TrEMBL record, chain A:
Recorded superkingdom: Bacteria
One Pfam family, short name: SBP_bac_1
The protein's name in its UniProt record: Carbohydrate ABC transporter substrate-binding protein, CUT1 family
Subcellular location as annotated: Periplasm
Family: Belongs to the bacterial solute-binding protein 1 family.
Gene Ontology CC entries for this record: periplasmic space
Record organism: Arboricoccus pini
Primary subcellular site in the record, as a coarse category: periplasm
Keywords for this protein: Signal, Transport
Keyword Signal tagged: yes
UniProt entry tagged with the keyword Transferase: no
TrEMBL record, chain B:
Family membership noted in the UniProt record: Belongs to the binding-protein-dependent transport system permease family.
InterPro entries referenced in this protein's UniProt entry, alphabetically: BP-dep_ABC_trans_perm, MetI-like, MetI-like_sf
One Gene Ontology term, aspect cellular component: plasma membrane
Transmembrane residue ranges: 9-32, 84-106, 118-141, 147-167, 205-227, 247-270
Major localization class: membrane
Record protein name field: Carbohydrate ABC transporter membrane protein 2, CUT1 family
Domain of life of the source: Bacteria
Localization per Swiss-Prot or TrEMBL: Cell membrane
Gene3D superfamilies with a match to the protein in the record: MetI-like
Record domain ABC transmembrane type-1: where: 80-270
Membrane topology: Multi-pass membrane protein
Organism for this UniProt entry: Arboricoccus pini
Lineage of the species this protein comes from: Bacteria, Pseudomonadati, Pseudomonadota, Alphaproteobacteria, Geminicoccales
Keywords, sorted A to Z: Cell membrane, Membrane, Transmembrane, Transmembrane helix, Transport
Amino acid sequence: MHEKAKDAVASFVAGRTSRRELFGYGAKLGLGAATMGFLLNEAQTTAQAADFDWQYYKGKTVNLLLNKHPYADAIIADLENFKKLTGMDVKYDVFPEDVYFDKITAALSSGSTQYDAFMTGAYQTWQYGPAGWLEDLNEYIKDPKWTNPAYAWDDVLPNLKASTSWSGVPGAALGGEGAKQWAVPLAFELNSITYNKRIFDKAKVEPAKNLPELVEIAAKIQGSGQNVYGIGTRGSRSWATIHPGYLSAFANYGGKDFEVADGKLKAAMNSAAGKEMTALWVDMIKSSGPRNWSTYTWYQVGTDLGAGASGMIYDADVLGYFMNGGDNKEAGNLAFSAFAPNPKGSSPTPNVWIWSLALNSYSSQKGPAWWFVQWATGTEHGLFGAQKMDLVNPVRNKIWQDETFRARIAKSYPGYLEQYAASSPGSKIYFTPQPLFFNLTTEWAASLQRMVAGELPVSEGLDELAANVDNQLKQAGLG
Amino acid sequence: MASKISGGAVLRAAARIIVLLFFLFPIFWVFLMSFQTNQQILRIPPSIFFTPTLENYTALFSGRLQTASGSLDIAFIKNLLNSIILSSCSVLIALILGVPAAYAFARFKFRLGENIAFTLLSFRFAPPLLVLVPLVAYFQMIGLSDTYIGLIWVYQLICLPLILWIVRGYFEDISPDIEHAYRVDGHSWAKTFFKIAIPLARPGIAAAALLSFIFAWNNFVFALILASADKQPVTVGALAFVTSAGIQYGIIAAAIVLSVTPTLLLALYAQRYLVEGLSLGAVKG
């Protein structure tokens, strides 16, 4: 029976039968979807090997540094296939996210060869890349000697490819002229609304269509007598407070962080559009945000949503995705909605966070490490992660078109696919890349805290912030 | 015969209870959390009444937590073991090196003596990351990277200055006359040190050792930067329960209870030495 199933899978991989026929045949043989999925993954791995010498580095060992995250779990769960495909061994260290970037920064800045490849965010590459700590992956991707012809780099969402590449010139566009590909996207998150249907139904409200409406609906939920607050957003004194909902809305109103002229940066947070949007944002937090908003990070925003303490969040879509599962009280009650904050009829412009894989330029095993990176960011592993694990959001078009993945998401995550379809075209990094990114966005968050605390009016607060930022840019020779 | 209780005594007792509640309630709450599921912990409003579960402790000891969203590998017991190895070996080595050094600094005046003692203390002033980044490179060159020996060596930055300075103060408080009398009887310097000086300074040494152990146990950054995941102490290991997909509050509470237990037991056992040792070494007569 097992041989028959293998033949059927081989026929599917060769394109002679459809997925539906394959799984139907499996059911007739008495094999469940999980078994068929396993056989399929194995057959696809073998098929991959036919077009490219995956065994070129057989016997080598790759050392990885991974963040404790569902994306890393997906890699670990599929590692046996990589080992079988390449004959290589993989050793990995997994560190919690709280300390993960300290670990990487220390390793890279000291020229350590301990790790050959590692997970990173796109913002971090603005520091690591120009410092010479990362390999420019263009040199690998564009060379057929190094990259499997079936890798299909063009299938990766263009905005994500651009968002992970930069020339290193402060203010130059991401993915622009002379950009180096510092990392390859693994999976990503965009910012939209995740709301609690149960709470919304009780309060008799619908998801908001723009920011003024969002402020109103959040206040209605707060006052609906359900002992919940209206909307969860991050508020801690960190760059991470600015990059999700706030910057997505800021960009949607036409706000920019910097203007670039003659290679010099000038703070532009205090534009009229920026002030209009920030005033609404501050009002919303004051009237319907969490009580300890200024301490809120990803974890608190997510936990409150999952526990039914907040009516909705304007944050990463995958945060809502994670909270709609597991042992969260509100699992199954959460729904998703794309969001275009500007009432003047614009489409969504979500800022994104991209978990990516990068190569350590000090590594003595760059070849084997690249073999791993192209496997982990390739279609087959992406499909495995999206169908069977939580490698969501996938970075490849082909995976978004996969029926099994779409059926799984449509079944358990109401509105997620529609939210993604509406949000995706405008999803990219809206920050201007520059080396002071973490310092200046942290200052932006601190300024926002003062506005919410009522220490400063919004207009004055943003003017003061822009002046401080300009001062720092000048001191660093960037302004 | 009914005894009269004055109003002042009642007020004092009430004040004591309030202070105790203030300091102990968070610990008590964490202890309760360690017997609850995540859902129970996140109830709105929180409640002190619940059906206790041992699943958090079971998960920590079995190394696997089964949740509705899948299973989570837990290396906490390995982390606990790492903390025990790193802290006890570091304190032991610091005692072997530090106690004779403290005695020398207390009893003898020699060239650059104070400078050397101050240099050792200054290790405590430097921000750890400043020292650690170059150390990563050196350790890799000499093969100490990601080894227990390398870590124990670096932990001397915490333990050695503490032991040296506390025990030095203690030796200085003990009159040298007893030692002189013993030497006059024809005993060697070494014998005097082991038979007279060390027994007399034992409370000070115990206090210094205990404090160093606590400081070493609570250290976070050294192993994080210098070692791989399998050599991390509890301070880093406990963070593994904070993931993008949610925070395992119950497990974190159980991990806190387990990681606090060894230092708490040690502190309770050595409490008498700790108070006596620290106070005697603190004031010079």
